[in-house]
């Protein structure tokens, strides 16, 4: 018997038989790595992309433990969006076909509250839902989690992106501390490590091998001898590669602002960050860049410190770095997490000695054709809505998601990053749906109040 066979796990006979009828014979890498640990009762952090088979991994774990005779909530699965919660609940129901009288309930924002209360009154074994709506039920005391033995945080990185960290903390507080906690995430930023330390007990970390090669950064060097040539080269490179997110480095605050203004003049979606901006301008620029509603950020090295963008497609050195360490740090911001990245450096005749100091073997590349400048500029996938209300107005990410996805609203998977600050909130929405999203928030109330909302451009 192979160790990747489900039959090697000691699962309940009914679950195994059902797996066979579903055509599940061999475990995927994430299942083979995490399921034995899950069945042992250990806390597990699983890193794997969507489609890696993680739902079956935690789904089988919680079904194997379930006491179907007890009509108390024994497992809770938190998901970032209603669509994902529906998918997860549907997959668990499929895996649970052999278990009679099992009740799996979905509790998500954007759906009426009343029927959910009615369903909860009849009892359930497993709840799958979004943090905002689960938190709301807890606040209204329509949901009790005193008997939960298993908590699953699915797509945890996306939940944190959508601003659900406080909601997750509030939910975890209401669950017995002797539970088993499973966390699944496609990426593993610092915030995930922080939340794992707070809510998990000595977790085992498993990482499904990526089908991608290790990170690869392709470096290019282009000689440009005048300011006009340099600006032209920058435009050509952005027009050719069409990056979703590109970081352009300049050495002075003045150059940073000039380059961003010039790019915007030519129709690129570009913003600058540097020390002369006030905090609100800086925050807005970083929010729009990190939520993919602006594709080019022009920055000085100092302003880019602490900028944590996971998936940068491209880094362009508009000005050469002053020393080799800074150069390496700049280009190392692309090609992360198994992705490929492009790093382009522009330099002039006078800077060849500076290039030698970078200790890199360079061969000058030929600049792509300027015919790329005739092609339309790629519009960002997302657009940011700014809502004139935040933490001080008791506005939470869950309220924003609920407001956008309610009756006549937009699907939850079309919502991107949500940032709630003291007096403002920012939500990224797929650009094609920004008008209906704007209309929905303008015509409906959030938290029983009307808030002013506008498109940031």
TrEMBL record:
It holds the Pfam family DEAD. A motif (Q motif) lies at residues 4-32. SMART domains: DEXDc, HELICc. Keywords: ATP-binding, Helicase, Hydrolase, Nucleotide-binding. The keyword Cell wall biogenesis/degradation does not apply. Residues 4-32 form the DEAD-box RNA helicase Q domain. InterPro entries: DbpA/CsdA_RNA-bd_dom (IPR005580), DEAD/DEAH_box_helicase_dom (IPR011545), DEAD/DEAH_RhlB (IPR044742), DEAD_box_RNA_helicase (IPR050079), Helicase_ATP-bd (IPR014001), Helicase_C-like (IPR001650), Nucleotide-bd_a/b_plait_sf (IPR012677), P-loop_NTPase (IPR027417). GO terms for cellular component: cytosol. Residues 216-381 form the Helicase C-terminal domain. GO terms for molecular function: ATP binding; hydrolase activity; nucleic acid binding; RNA helicase activity. The keyword Nucleotide-binding applies. Residues 35-206 form the Helicase ATP-binding domain. Belongs to the DEAD box helicase family. This is DEAD/DEAH box helicase. It comes from Candidatus Thioglobus autotrophicus. The lineage of its organism: Bacteria, Pseudomonadati, Pseudomonadota, Gammaproteobacteria, Candidatus Pseudothioglobaceae.
């Amino acid at each position: 018997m192979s160790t990747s066979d489900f039959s090697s796990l000691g699962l309940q006979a009914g679950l195994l038989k059902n797996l066979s009828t579903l055509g599940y014979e061999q475990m995927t890498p994430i299942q083979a790595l995490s399921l034995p640990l899950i069945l042992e009762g250990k806390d597990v952090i699983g890193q794997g992309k969507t489609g890696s088979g993680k739902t079956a991994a935690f789904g089988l774990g919680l079904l194997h433990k379930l006491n179907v005779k007890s009509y108390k909530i024994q497992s809770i699965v938190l998901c970032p969006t209603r669509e994902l919660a529906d998918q997860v609940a549907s997959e668990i129901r499929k895996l649970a076909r052999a278990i009679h009288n099992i009740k799996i309930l979905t509790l998500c924002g954007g759906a009426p509250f009343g029927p959910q209360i009615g369903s909860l009154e009849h009892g359930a074994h497993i709840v799958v839902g979004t943090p905002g709506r689960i938190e709301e039920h807890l606040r209204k005391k329509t949901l009790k989690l005193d008997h939960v033995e298993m908590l699953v945080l699915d797509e945890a990185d996306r939940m944190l992106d959508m601003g659900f960290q406080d909601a997750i903390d509030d939910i975890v507080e209401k669950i017995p501390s002797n539970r088993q906690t499973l966390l699944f995430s496609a990426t593993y930023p610092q915030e995930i490590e922080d939340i794992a330390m707070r809510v998990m007990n000595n977790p085992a970390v498993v990482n499904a091998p990526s089908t991608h090669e290790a990170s690869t950064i392709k470096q290019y060097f282009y000689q440009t001898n005048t300011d006009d040539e340099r600006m032209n080269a920058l435009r050509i490179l952005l027009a050719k590669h069409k990056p979703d997110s590109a970081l352009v480095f300049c050495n002075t605050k003045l150059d940073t602002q000039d380059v961003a203004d010039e790019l915007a003049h030519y129709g690129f979606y570009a913003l600058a960050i540097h020390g002369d901006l006030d905090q609100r301008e800086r925050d807005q620029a970083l929010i729009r860049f990190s939520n993919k509603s602006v594709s080019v950020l022009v920055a000085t090295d100092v302003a880019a410190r602490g900028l944590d963008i996971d998936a940068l497609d491209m880094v362009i050195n508009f000005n050469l770095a002053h020393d080799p360490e800074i150069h390496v740090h700049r280009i190392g911001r692309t090609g992360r997490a198994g992705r490929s990245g492009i790093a382009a450096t522009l330099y002039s005749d006078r800077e060849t000695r500076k290039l030698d100091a970078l200790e890199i073997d360079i061969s000058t590349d030929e600049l792509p054709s300027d015919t790329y400048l005739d092609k339309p500029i790629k519009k960002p996938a997302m657009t940011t809505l700014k809502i004139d209300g935040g933490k001080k107005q008791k506005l939470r990410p869950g309220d924003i998601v609920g407001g956008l996805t309610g009756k006549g609203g937009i699907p939850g998977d079309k919502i991107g990053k949500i940032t709630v600050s003291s007096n403002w909130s920012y939500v990224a929405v797929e650009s094609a749906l920004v008008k209906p999203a704007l209309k929905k928030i303008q015509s409906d109330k959030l938290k029983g109040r009307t808030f002013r909302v506008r498109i940031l451009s």
